[in-house]
Amino acid sequence: MQLTGAEIVIRCLQEEKVEYVFGYPGGSVLYIYDELFKQDKFKHVLVRHEQAAVHAADAYSRSSNKIGVCLVTSGPGVTNAVTGIATAHMDSVPLVIISGQVPTAYIGQDAFQECDTVGITRPCVKHNFLVKDVRDLALTLKKAFYIAKTGRPGPVLVDIPKDITNQKCDFEYPKTLSMRSYNPVVKGHGGQIKKAVQMLLEAKRPMIYAGGGVILSDASDRLTKLAQTLGYPVTNTLMGLGGYPATDKQSLGMLGMHGTFEANMAMQNCDVLIAVGARFDDRVIGNPAHFGSVARKIIHIDIDPSSISKRVKVDVPIVGNLPDVLDELQKLLESSDGVPDPKALAAWWKQIDEWRGKKSLKYKQGKEIIMPQYVVEKLYEVTGGDAFVTSDVGQHQMWAAQYYKFDKPRRWINSGGLGTMGVGLPYAMGVRFANPKATVACITGEASIQMNIQELSTAKQFRLPIKIINLNNRYLGMVRQWQQMFHGNRYAESYVDALPDFVMLAESYGHVGMKIERPADVEPALREAFTKHKNDLVFMDFLTDQTANVYPMVAAGKGLSEMILAEEL
Amino acid sequence: MRHIISILIENEAGALSRVSGLFSARAFNIESLTVAPTEDASLSRMTIVSSGSDDVIEQITKQLNKLIDVVKVVDLSEAAHIERELMLVKVRAAGKDREEMKRIADIFRGRIIDVTDSTYVIELTGNGSKLDAFLEAIDRALILETVRTGVSGIGRGDRILKV
To answer: Is A309 in Cβ contact with B71 (below 8 Å)?
Structure first.
């Protein structure tokens, strides 16, 4: 059957069982939009800015493990999308981005709304394609979906010139695919796994360090089982929160720059470390030389060989798909005669409990000024710890990560790698599309929320009952904190002046707005938002302490155990 | 240390920019890079000369392998291999220099492939240090132009890089 390129695009998306396409029309994608108009198998979500389309698709994927799909036009459509693509790329989120391009004959002529999409996006995608022949279109899209989801996931972009979308050819969606240049490893090396089991059983001060890979590969059940079989402490990275239940006694919470005292101390002082889907990045281990100054054996499981021994040398590298490797590890562990040394383990837990005794996350909530930490704690209580929580980037992001205890994977959605301000609201939209009945809260700040505030309009159009928790301290809080600590209190351009009245702003979009100024009002307001206004988008503007800082803190370039604690100040 | 990395890569548009972009984005060093299609027109073969610590070279090969279009990567310098580079040198060859230039070219087994009454173009093949030595051996003032292809390499004996 002969179909046009535009029809082929639509058919491919249907074949891939796509439910939602997040996008924004424009000249180069008009044929595609015309075909999209004629079908009802998947829905299109019209955002108000292409960046938000990618963020929404990204969160749709993060909160569901399906592939997020976006559709944008050439030129500015693509360049607006780049921040979203780079954000997804840094956090290994599977997306397929379809972009329009000027007609083939115009490429390179500086045509209207032309840009070198493949060139611009190349460093921030897993792979990209420019389709030059309509006969390649179906296979290219098939490859895009396959590459996005397999191996270490990531965004894949397919750039389609306008003339291609209007040319016809026979259509058949390829059922299978094999690529000689791309065959991701699945099974881990048996010998290495055996070595890892041995090492784990011989540990005196063991530590499990679990990252975003656990979430991405749906391995949290297996990780939890392994940790509980061994009885070893677990810490999660910012990207790994929810990968191991935070309320379990074996959980030490988050580690890293703003990790708990116990997690960072245990990470630094363990003798056997097993890294599961994590990459030892600078915000996690601090100074690698300082981290390396303590002798310990490291087992590292990751699907991406280039993540292994990149920043830290490891003793037992295992390349493979986490669920497969963890299954194998569990099996070997259970059939092994050895057990962890109970005496050593008890002594290690005693040490950890001493570190826990520091209560590094404590803060004081007075009667007058709302502490931002308090709002997150109350949000946790009011939502029963069961909400999907998105955040933007900055202090509020860290408080959300520290005080909302995630027991399930895919509930915590944030930009960990790229640290993109403005993701919170579009992330909340994407989560809600993937989980239509879920409670969704967006913890944000008055600066971040303004970076994609236009999406209040999209949220209105699609009646998305997101609860926006705006921790408003009238500062770029994290910038101000660094300026206070490292730049002699010179608050260069970190004061946010001329803020809108967020209540009126929310109301002007047809949402509910609330302003909360006193600690006593925090919980009642949250309850009202999540019960009376269950079905509304509620913008909750919490005026919080302007001087609050995030602690503990490992300053950039410092070692993990060189934390600054709140009590020391 | 200096390494010679050989890559088989799908002969697609933009393949070269994926490789060169990777090197610049990750601050890896490139001394030379050569690329051309192989006997199988769907594949290109690339030879990259780079230098760095063992850790850096390990990252380079891992990152190259991660590129979707890359089929195979081999660090040739890990074992016995041959490397060659082609250089064309245009020199002034007039008067007393004319005979001398011919003589040095012969010593280095170079071939004169273009002649005018005042210039030669000399073709020279070898490893990098041989080409350097030739340039050292002739009078600098007589060099009008040089062009080098960068290194191509191949494994010795049974070491074969093929799909």
So the answer is: no
